[in-house]
Amino acid sequence: MKPRHRRLAIAGGVLAAVGVAAALVLNAFQSNLVFFYSPSQVAAHEAPLERTFRIGGMVQAGTVQRDGTQVSFVVTDTAKAIPVRYEGILPDLFKEGKGVVAQGQLRNGVFVAREVLAKHDENYMPPEAAEAVRRAQQGKLANTLEAAK
Question: Burial, 118: exposed, middle or buried (Cβ in 10 Å; 0-12, 13-18, 19+)?
Fold first, then answer.
């Protein structure tokens, strides 16, 4: 093999290896990408059925039910509400009427959470959840004004 052909073969091999590595990294990134949805978006069937995603909003007052380590509650953005089921120990800051983000999958209309995150102080709500609540409240206000006309 001539030196020129050897250099082309090495360059081709390096290029192929870089391409395979880039494809594997992008595939792993795509597999681990988790999107955020509000309860209104989940109720409108915008959330994926077969993939993990995050849902966030407020824990609706009076909906927390505990049975050992199994907990069920309802997450709302003031417009729509989605029931959530979680098995495990909840964060200490988890309370009714406070902000929460849960990660899991939607199964038969119930969000089955694998992880539950609670807000960390009195003024904090995840930006996505705050935006979802704000949009839901604006939608309710617009509907109320339309009904009043």
Answer: middle
Instruction: Indicate if 74 and 19 belong to the same structural domain.
Output: no
Question: How does pLDDT run across 78-131, given as a tens digit for each residue?
Answer: 889 999 999 998 888 888 888 899 999 998 889 999 999 886 555 556 677 777
Q: Answer yes or no: do 67 and 97 share one domain.
A: yes
Q: How far apart are CA 20 and CA 27, in angstroms?
A: 11
Question: Is residue 45 part of an annotated ligand binding site?
Answer: no
Pairing of strands 99-107, 36-37: unpaired
Rounded Cα distance between 113 and 73, Å, is 11
Strand partners, 110: 107
Which range of residues forms the domain containing residue 15?
1-33
Does 120 appear as a known binding residue? Answer: yes
pLDDT tens digit string along 66-76?
Answer: 998 899 999 99
Indicate if 79 and 23 belong to the same structural domain. no
Q: What is the percent of the chain with per-residue pLDDT over 70, rounded to a whole number?
A: 85
Give the mean pLDDT of 49-69: 89
CATH code of the domain covering residue 135: 2.40.50.140
Cα-trace Rg, the chain: 23
